[in-house]
Design goal:
With 520 residues, the chain is α+β, with helices and mostly antiparallel strands. The protein has 13 helices and 12 strands. The chain has a 5-stranded antiparallel β-sheet. It starts with a helix and ends with a strand.
Length: 520
Amino acid sequence: MLERTKERLSGIPLRARLVAIISLLLAAGLGIAGIATTTVVSNYLERQVDQELHTAALGLTTGVPQQGSGPGLPSDYYVQVTYEDGTVRTNRTEATLNQFGLPDLPDMTFEEAAASKGQPFTVPATSESAQSESWRVVTLAVTFQPGGEQVIVYVARPLVGIDSTVSILTSTLVLSGLGIVLLGGLTAWVLVERSLRSLRSVEHTAAQIAAGDLTQRVPEAPPTTEMGSLAASLNAMLTQIERAFAAQEASEVRMRQFVSDASHELRTPVATIRGYGELYRMGALDTTDKVDDTMFRIEDAARRMGTLVNDLLVLARLDEGRPVAREDVDLAALARDSAQDLHALDPTREVAVVPLSPEGDGAAGRVPDTLVVEGDSDRIRQVLTNLIGNVARHTPAGTPAEIALGVLPGPPDQNGTPQRSKDADNAGQDGEGTDPSSDEPPSGSLAVLEVRDHGPGLTEEQGRRIFERFYRADSSRTRESGGSGLGMAIVAAIVGTHGGHVEVAPTAGGGLTVRLTLPL
């Protein structure tokens, strides 16, 4: 039963529940106030009647009135005197008798009357047709001197005035209370309706989002209000959800494109191997020279397929966002090794390690002996291997190349001041000057490595797309040349995992320059 009641109540709209609660609270408050008001008024009127009865009763102590007489008393008073011998005399008018009836007075002894000490009390009327249902009575025990006769005096007055006043007041309070509750309920309905308008807009927005429109936002409200705070939180959440869905969709698009491109790239070497295998099975390779040539081509296709698979594995691991190993890597040593490797690939090519610029950019016009960054040595070496491999493949034999090294200042601090090295700061505090020939770069500086060639270079469109996966700059750079189209994508991914940046630009005098920037 209780569970059913809870289910029914939970099914009532919030708007109706709020209005009902407000109306009930308003009715309860008005009811309590009305009861208190009628009680106070009734007690006040009774106290006035009690005072009048006391005054009248004290006036009677100077002489007991005779039956039928009552000088000085209002016509609606009733006076009864009971003597020691049981004689009872009353003072009343016929009009009082006919209109209000008689009070149902209790039989009291003299001692009981004396013990009451004149405290007023209420008794009912004897006549059911009387206008007043109750009387207010004061009892006095009087001893007359010199005879010492003892009498009991009852002074009563009908409460019809008090009853009428309280009845009118009660009716007025009830009617006005009902009106106030009705008006308050209507006002509460309007205010709640207006307050919940924002919730309906949230509901409408949620419905549109559920339909697939993630660009919808909840209307803003003043941030100091509850709806404003809720709207801000919901909008922030919706923005994050939209970004997450967009990122997921972009990732799925890239994955589909990646799988498509990988399948396309693998199709050629697989088809080559399969074709030569079919030729061998069909007996078309009838000489040793043909078999040797076929085996060479199969081996070359397998090598290219292995290179592609290895590059795909590298990119997949980089995409996982695994933290890179952190160790000291000397870019200067790697640059010298790479220059030797490129010269070994083409002995006719002049390869030099040069300063970043004629001014040296922090190296005083010379190549730094060491330039240490933190990172994965194997990954950074792979970057240089890919870059010099591109130079060897895509520039004419004998074309010179340079590997430039240097340091650039990092971004300024919040005050716009270039960052300095910790040793420079300490030297300034000790009062000693800094060594201008020191190779230690300022704190927050950037290590820069450039691989410059003097080949055909790239167009602006090719430069924008050079870091796309499986992108080849032109038709002359086919998959037959040994490239997978993933080399520059791997370069960008590795540099990115090290917190660096890679970009391409034309070389002065013609050619292509690839610039790597890594934090020191």
